Structure formats: C-alpha cells, structure tokens
Amino acid sequence: MPLTYQTMSLSPIQNHTFTFPDTISQFAVGISSFYFAFSEDHHVQQISLALTSNQVAPTQVSVAVNGVLSDASGNTVDLSKSYVTVVVVAWTGATTTTNLLSAPFSVASGSNNESPPISLPDSFHSILQACMSGFYLAYPQTDHHVLNVNASVGSTANGSDGYITVTANMSDDSGNTAQNPTGTGFLVASSDKMPSFIVVPYTAQDAGQQTIPMGSVKLSDAFVLLTGFQVQFPDNDDHEISDIGAGPNTWVCQSDDTGSRVVSSGVWAWMSNDDGDTQDMALSSASVIAVGILDQSE
To answer: In the chain, how long is the greatest CA-to-CA distance?
Structure first.
C-alpha cells in the first residue's frame, strides 16, 4: 500500500486524467503552485481556484481545474500565460486503515469556522496535516484595486475527529474586502508510530532555488504541496494587478549518506502590475509541505 503521486501543470480550465500503475485505494488532489495573469493589468473582482476530482477507474483519477481571475468589465484570466500545478496523491495496492487522504472540504474563513468532523484512523496521530486544494475570494458587486490577498488551511483534532480551518481574504486600502471568503483543503493523516512517509512544513519568500532539509532518513521520492500564501503590495498602497501566483512548480528529491532533501523552485508568493509595482517581500510568503516517501528497499 505505497504512497505515491503524480503531478502536471494544467491551464486554469483544463481537465486531465492521471493514471497510476496500481489500484487506487485512497486519493486526494492538491496543488504545489498556481499563476493567474491578465493580458494587461486590471481591477479585480474575483480570484478563485477549484479542483473537481473523481476516481473514474481502479487506476485513474480525473481532475478538472477551474481557475478564475476577473474584473467587473469582462476581463478574465489569460489562459496562454496561466497555470496550476496539480498534485494527485494516492495510496495504491492494498487498502490501509492507519493512513488517511481525506475528501476535500470548503470552509468559510474565520476562527469560529471549521469543516465537518473528518474521521481519522485513530485518536493518536503521528501525522496530521491540511493541504490546500482551492480558495474563493471575491469583492461584492464590483471590482476594486488589490492591496492584500491571502489564503491558508490548517488542521485541528478532537480525539479521532479531524477538522480543517481556513484563513482567507482579499482587500484594498479603502476598506473593501472579499465577501464570504473560503478555502478548500484535505487532510493527510497517519496513526502509524513509524509512518512510511514524513511531512516537513516550510515557509519562505524567495524566488530562488530552495533546499528543504528532510533529515537523516533515506527517501525514495518526495513531493510538495501548497498549504497557504499571503501577498501584499508595499506601503499599504493598493493597485490594479496583471498577475498573481504562489508556490514552487518543480522539485527533485535528493537522498544520500548525509541525509535527504527536497530541492525546489522558488517558495514564494508574488503579484505585480504593468507600472512595475510588485509585492512587499517582507509581507509576502508561501507555505508548503514537503512529503518524503521512505525508502523501503533496505
């Protein structure tokens, strides 16, 4: 019952079927990065991402991406520039009762909101992690400039019940904010005392190559999932935007006698406009998890 994954960069309105080499017993679909762009800068009314997934055959999962960047005048995301890096995570082979890839849940932002209870393998959990699979941010009625955009998912537990929490918003510098913002996520959990995989959280704001230390264990493979992002223009000034994105879209797993690491493209969040305004690096960041699959060959 190995944990495995497949990844592909898709357009914001693309469908794709992922085929695994063995029967899928559980699966979840997340992202490692997204990038939405207009053909030129505009006000914004809605920024959102939704993934619809189904197991269409014993070894196949279909994913439909619906990414939106739009204003109130009919300007929408430029499909030729934009992408979503989709990651399908699966348990294959025999079923597992001690590991969980949950269904996705959409949750309203706020400290008093959480998903319905998600049954965990046990009240003891060696791993409990929420991963992002979408978000919805929209100003009511019309479009506005953008100062800040953020969305993140978290996890809590009460005994053998797990919950997903969300923080999300979009705002300008005049007090306009997103109406009823939501985030969508799923849980990765294990009750094994020695799980066959490890999870390492990592937050950064750096466009350069990143090295995520995975410890002294030997890994056979690894993948990266986005858990949240925040991006803001400097000086509390809002602007039109031409593009927005977050997260790394490539990575490799390195494992040797000194330990293991995941080397990825930039872990960061960014946005810009046609006048050269870009994010405040001190107020922007992306958060991911690197999931390392332990080498069972020895």
So the answer is: 60
